[in-house]
Design goal:
By secondary structure, this protein is α/β, with parallel strands linked by helices. The protein has a single domain (6-13, 22-296), classed as Arginase, Chain A (3-Layer(aba) Sandwich). The protein has an eight-stranded parallel β-sheet, sandwiched between helices. It has ten helices and eight strands. The protein is globular. Residues 41-277 form the Histone deacetylase domain. This is Deacetylase, histone deacetylase/acetoin utilization protein. Keywords: Hydrolase.
Length: 297
């Protein structure tokens, strides 16, 4: 049996209107595909004190109590409910324990997370809590690591992450995203690589080799957090790229091989994926983990 394990909040669902665009189906689907390949554990609840180290306490209190405006809910993109708040808490807790796993075994896995649009005091784009920043802030505060690279390969810029870590010199925020895609007002990451529509496998992998990995070599992190969004695939409802499943597999393989060669533990979070082909969305997210099992085992 592998020494690795993964965490999922799949059992923590929340009410959605019929036909809503959020792909709630994918979390249970990914856990099912990976069953038997590694232990899959329920996502633990995040301690609210850890969230308060990153987010405004009044903001958190209002969302927990449901005291939010219609406009705030619209920008968040999901209807408010106690369940949606608890689910965000569980997804963030999973990133914290996955980070601890990475430091123990070399790789940690959250079958959710990557909610990179959450800011200090506002929710955006299905992101209520910025799980990666919460976990990274804890790790830096406790001295578990000294330099962290966040490699955000979701098709959308990690604007909340960039904003929250703008003054943290020990964190390197790197985002490869669609130039013309959401969010339409970008923040400034440590390195932003904005690409045009229709990016192919070869073009994307060339960017990794010529820009992403040299930047990581220069920063020399002792932990890497990988936001493995599969909304880079052709056919995604909210993406404008044209990667194939094989290209996305190779993307993950190169990230993991960089980590192995550099001796850097890695944390994988799922981030976005909204393909018109539901089965492809599930398979692509699961393949991110299966490739990791191939590379790290």
């Amino acid at each position: 049996m592998t020494r690795f394990r993964a965490y999922t909040p799949a059992e923590y669902t929340f009410p959605l209107p019929e036909g809503h665009r959020f792909p709630l189906y994918k979390y249970a689907g990914v856990a099912l595909q990976l069953q038997g390949q590694l232990p899959i554990l329920p996502a633990p609840a995040l301690e609210w004190e850890l969230a308060e180290a990153v987010h405004d306490r009044g903001y958190l209190d209002r969302w927990r109590a449901g005291e939010v405006s219609r406009d705030e809910v619209r920008v968040f993109g999901l209807p408010w409910s106690p369940e949606v708040v608890e689910r965000a808490r569980r997804a963030s807790g999973a990133t914290v324990v996955a980070l601890r796993d990475a430091l123990r075994s070399g790789w940690g896995v959250n079958l959710s997370g990557g909610t990179h649009h959450a800011f200090f005091d506002r929710a955006e784009g299905f992101s209520l809590l910025n799980d990666v920043v919460i976990a990274v802030t804890l790790a830096l505060r406790e001295g578990w690591v000294s330099r962290v690279a966040i490699v955000d390969l979701d098709v959308h810029q990690g604007n909340g992450t960039a904003s929250l870590l703008a003054r943290e010199a020990r964190a390197y925020t790197l985002s490869v995203h669609g130039e013309r895609n959401y969010p339409f007002r970008k923040e400034r990451s440590s390195l932003d690589i904005a690409l045009g529509d229709g990016v192919s496998d070869l073009q994307y992998l060339h960017v990794l080799d010529t820009q992403v990995f040299p930047a990581l070599d220069a920063f020399r992190p002792d932990l890497l957090v990988y936001l493995a969004g599969v909304d880079v695939l052709g056919g995604d409802r909210f993406g404008r790229f044209a990667l194939t499943l094989e290209g996305a597999d190779e993307r993950s393989r190169r990230v993991y091989r960089w980590c192995k060669a550099a001796g850097v533990p890695a944390v994988t979070t799922m981030a976005g994926g909204y393909n018109r082909d539901f089965a492809l969305t599930v398979n692509a997210h699961a393949r991110t983990v299966e490739v990791g099992l191939e590379e790290f085992s």
